[in-house]
């Protein structure tokens, strides 16, 4: 690499793709916040990579993408090769480029981060794959030889899709079952379209179907089909079930009118604004369908500071709320949500009340919410995971007025009865137990059942679900192809 290229970052500042104008966002535009790079911008930003020789970005990326290599290909305009390289490590790069909290992952580890601004790795990853797909590029499976093996995947979220991608690349037929009518899991039914446009998921479905993946949607295992049926009919089963048990704060007043659980609110709103169901009718297989209240002109308070909380506050802004406040019990530095999303929320007019722990939802008429009683907190000693506990300060209670209160305290997995009946163990926190001594990685206590993603890790990220689905596929192949053929290179990422 020439000297001029090495020092390009000195003259070229970090730049993200243009954002949708603020006036449109606050007026209720649900389009993706970040636009797309044109080729010169992508090449310019990719050229800022130092090629520092110690790619901490790769180490910090959960799927260990070959980041400096594909940045170099973008600089040289070799987009189709870059797309193929992206897919070597990441079955869903266009999703991760959009929704990964890059400030905590690849970009946070970039050598340029502190003094010059990190390379815009996520935006370039999105550019590569969107551009390649638009040019008709598709993964090349021409050398794949069918093995005659067939695996069932339960769950079309990122874990299940990543697993399916890796299996079909190695000649193993895959049928993916999901209880919902569309693929994507929480990427489809959870993450709002201003972060991830749903057409991106539709394109990925077309790509996976083109690779031979079969989807059976609207089929809930345990209701429409038994697990025994899959265990008999398939060589192995991957469980990518997600984590859907709400963390119940047990707040007095949480049953009042105007108090909404976060995920049903986001799901129902997403269905209405994307036009998939403008009337917000109940979703097949979804037990918590919500009648959407009108937020226009209302005072909205969101409890919780994670990604889900940030999606709720920013949705409430787009729905025309008069004021939107996020109350979080720790300080800003300890928020679990991405710093970029917090900055975007603030820019859109969200007020943050840090170090406030909710005590109760209050009502002036005994029927509907009128406010949230909170107490101020200070940070105490770290807990077992190193996070500092929020300790209430005596005598610091106050009430934040609210017409709508959205509770976003997080989720955890729950083992369904039909799975427990097969002897699959879970930890006390509901996470499926996998990879015990003597088992393959991601293999449960049942030989033919493998699992990954949120149902194993607890509620986490798209990219970690992708990594687990991808790596579980390698274990599945090891088992079903034993004695037939060597593990295909596609699985050795
Ligand atoms: P899921 O995506 O939950 O998919 C599980 C699938 O399994 C679902 O489609 C479900 O229908 C299906 N299923 C379950 N049981 C059955 C059954 N019995 N039969 C058939 N199908 C079944 N992560 C990020 O990286 N960035 C973000 O910005 C981000 N924002 C988020 C915002 C919200 C509101 C939420 C809730 C999460 C967010 N996340 C984000 C987290 C991320 O979406 C999840 O970690 C990820 O989707 C987990 O993937 P998964 O495949 O394990 O599970
Ligand atoms: Fe960064 Fe996520 Fe892409 Fe890895 S997958 S390079 S962490 S945006």
Counting DSSP E segments of at least 2 residues, the number of strands comes to 15
How big is the Rg? 23 Å
Distinct small-molecule ligands in the complex: flavin-adenine dinucleotide, iron/sulfur cluster
Label the structural class: alpha/beta
Q: Biggest β-sheet: count, sense, barrel? A: 5 strands, parallel
Number of helices: 19
- Mean pLDDT across every amino acid position: 92
Span between N and C termini?
27 Å
CATH architecture of the largest domain: 3-Layer(bba) Sandwich
Cofactor: [4Fe-4S] cluster
GO molecular function, one term: 4 iron, 4 sulfur cluster binding
Domain Dihydroprymidine dehydrogenase: 29-136
InterPro entries: DPD_II, FAD/NAD-bd_sf, FAD/NAD-binding_dom, GltD-like, Helical_ferredxn
């Amino acid at each position: 690499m020439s000297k001029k290229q090495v020092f390009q970052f000195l003259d070229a500042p970090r730049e993200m793709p243009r954002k949708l104008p603020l006036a449109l966002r606050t007026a209720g535009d649900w389009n993706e916040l970040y636009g797309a790079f044109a080729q010169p911008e992508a090449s310019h930003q990719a050229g800022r990579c130092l090629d520092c020789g110690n790619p901490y970005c790769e180490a910090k990326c959960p799927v260990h993408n070959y980041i400096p290599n594909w940045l170099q290909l973008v600089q040289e305009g070799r987009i189709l090769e870059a797309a193929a390289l992206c897919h070597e490590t990441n079955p869903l790069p266009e999703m991760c480029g959009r929704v990964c909290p890059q400030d905590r992952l690849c970009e946070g580890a970039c050598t340029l981060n502190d003094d010059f601004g990190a390379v815009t790795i996520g935006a370039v990853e999105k550019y590569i794959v969107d551009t390649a797909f638009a040019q008709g590029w598709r993964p090349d499976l021409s050398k794949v030889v069918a093995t005659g093996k067939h695996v069932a995947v339960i769950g079309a979220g990122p874990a299940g899709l990543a697993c399916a991608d890796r299996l079909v690349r190695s000649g193993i037929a895959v049928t993916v079952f999901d209880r919902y009518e569309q693929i994507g899991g929480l990427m489809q039914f959870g993450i709002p379209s201003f972060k991830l446009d749903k057409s991106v998921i539709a394109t990925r479905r077309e790509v996976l179907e083109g690779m031979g993946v079969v989807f059976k949607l609207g089929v809930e295992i345990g209701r429409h089909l038994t697990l025994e049926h899959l265990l008999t009919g398939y060589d192995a089963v991957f469980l990518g079930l997600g984590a859907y048990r709400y963390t119940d704060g047990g707040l007095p007043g949480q049953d009042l009118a105007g108090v909404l659980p976060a995920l049903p609110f986001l799901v129902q709103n997403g269905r209405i604004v994307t036009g998939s169901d403008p009337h917000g009718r109940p979703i097949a297989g979804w037990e918590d369908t919500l009648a959407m209240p009108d937020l226009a002109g209302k005072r909205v308070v969101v409890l919780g500071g994670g990604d889900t909380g940030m999606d709720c506050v920013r949705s409430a802004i787009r729905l025309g709320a008069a004021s939107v406040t996020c109350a979080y019990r720790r300080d800003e530095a300890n928020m679990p949500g991405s710093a970029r999303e917090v900055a975007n929320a603030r820019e859109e007019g969200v007020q943050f009340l840090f170090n406030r722990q909710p005590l109760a939802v209050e009502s002036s008429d005994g029927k509907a919410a009128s406010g949230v009683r909170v107490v101020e907190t200070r940070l105490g000693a770290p807990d077992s995971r190193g996070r500092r506990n929020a300790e209430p300060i005596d005598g610091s209670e106050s009430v934040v007025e609210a017409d709508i209160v959205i509770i976003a305290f997080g989720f955890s997995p729950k083992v369904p009865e039909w799975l427990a009946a097969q002897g699959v163990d879970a930890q006390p926190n509901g996470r499926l137990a996998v990879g015990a001594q003597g088992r393959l990685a991601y293999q449960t206590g049942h030989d033919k059942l493998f699992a990954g993603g949120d149902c194993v890790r607890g509620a986490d990220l798209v990219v970690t679900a992708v990594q687990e689905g991808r790596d579980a596929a390698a274990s599945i192949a090891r088992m079903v192809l034993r004695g037939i053929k060597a593990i295909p290179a596609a699985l050795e990422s």
